[in-house]
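re: ur msg from earlier - yeah i can do the flavin-adenine dinucleotide complex, just paste it... oh wait u already did. ok heres what im feeding in:
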Amino acid sequence: MSRVEVDVVVLGLGAGGEHAAHKLAETGLAVVGVERDLIGGECPFWGCTPSKLLIHSAQRGDDFARAAARIREANHDWHDEQHAGPLEEAGVRLVRGHGRLAGPGRVEVGGSTYDARLGVLLNTGTAPAVPDIEGLADTPYWTNRDVMRQEQPPGSLVVIGAGPIGAELAQAFVRFGTEVTLLEAGHRILGPEEPEAAEVISGVLRREGVTIRTDAEVTGVRHVDDGFVVEVDGETLAAEQVLVAVGRSMNLVDIGLETVGLDPDHHRVDTDERMRAAERLWAVGDITGEGDYTHLSIYQAQVAVRDLLGEDGPWADYRAVGRVTFTDPEVGSVGLTEEQARAAGLRVAVGRADIARSARGWISEADGIVKVVADADRGVLVGGTVVAPYGGEVLGLLTTAVHAEIPVGTLRHMHFAYPTFHRAIAAALGDL
Ligand SMILES: Cc1cc2nc3c(=O)[nH]c(=O)nc-3n(C[C@H](O)[C@H](O)[C@H](O)COP(=O)(O)OP(=O)(O)OC[C@H]3O[C@@H](n4cnc5c(N)ncnc54)[C@H](O)[C@@H]3O)c2cc1C
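and the outut:
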């Protein structure tokens, strides 16, 4: 067994790990990056980029084959040299294989041990969660990973799970001509979002032909010669394919968390404001349980890098994390929902505006809403949601407002260009 001394080991090279390894190596530190699959992780190869390419092509009315070709082109046919190259140029030593912690500041990969003087940054990410449904494990069901490798859309598709991934892909496939049924165990689709947002998106999806069933209990899945049989609420549904999109499971198995005093059965890696998780261990990304977003993983990596380099913050602050569901219209939201703000004990004020009644919404025949959630005692927004064409872009204004705690009075007296979607925010502020 060889033994190598370095400054930092980055275990798992998802979005945050890749960013941190690059930045740390650029400062001249000796950095080892350990990856067992493709460097860059879920986002570029099976997540954000290919799903947004599929959605974009579906929206433009392209052929599915064009979308498939653009996905292959974007991720170099599932080769990671466009990620590995820049890391190596920055001086990162890449080690391929499954890494395990072996005590504070120590990682084992294959037959080698890496001792990290400063510490280890953990970024092992997540994999698709698979629900315990009778028969499902024995079928060739799809996860997001399979979707991104298809050359043709299926004739019919049952999507199990109506979170952001399920809702986005249900709409993309129905637009490619697939007959889509979207099954959700909860009372509504896009459960964590504002109910008003879920209502708009449900209406749009239904209008486009998606069959949505909420409070749906899937009790069995079988694969027969010409497709799948899905048992739901005592009925059977037949479909050519089944897509499982019920969330993510954390890659925390067999990574040696117990060797640094952490519970390997805990559902996440708890971190402090500097992203420290244990002695000489930092953790970033989906495994921290603060949200499954690429931008959040990179944000946390920036915080951890500052701490590793001995800088004086700023440290992690999650008050204004933005998130976007890339349905059409998009759902952009930031901070707390009304329900979360009330649960936090705030004196809450809420303002709403209907995009369809705004000038731009009427011109564009667009559906959507803006909802702002204010802390009435402090006179600042603590959350906001915009469902609109380009809702993810309009979100920028609400994110700035929540992040910088701009007084509602100041926001109300801004100039809001006419006729834009963001002008609907002025109407929502007026409704507070
Ligand atoms: C379909 C889909 C669409 C999405 N769309 C968006 C979007 O539009 N916007 C957005 O912000 N987010 C989106 N996400 C979420 C986003 O992909 C993740 O939040 C993002 O990838 C950040 O993850 P991460 O940094 O935690 O690590 P990951 O990307 O999960 O990478 C972790 C890496 O660690 C490696 N690894 C794990 N264990 C070991 C080990 N023991 N040894 C060595 N290597 C190991 C893995 O192979 C992997 O490469 C989407 C996700 C999916 C599935």
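cool cool. The longest helix spans residues 294-308. ping me if u need the other ligands too
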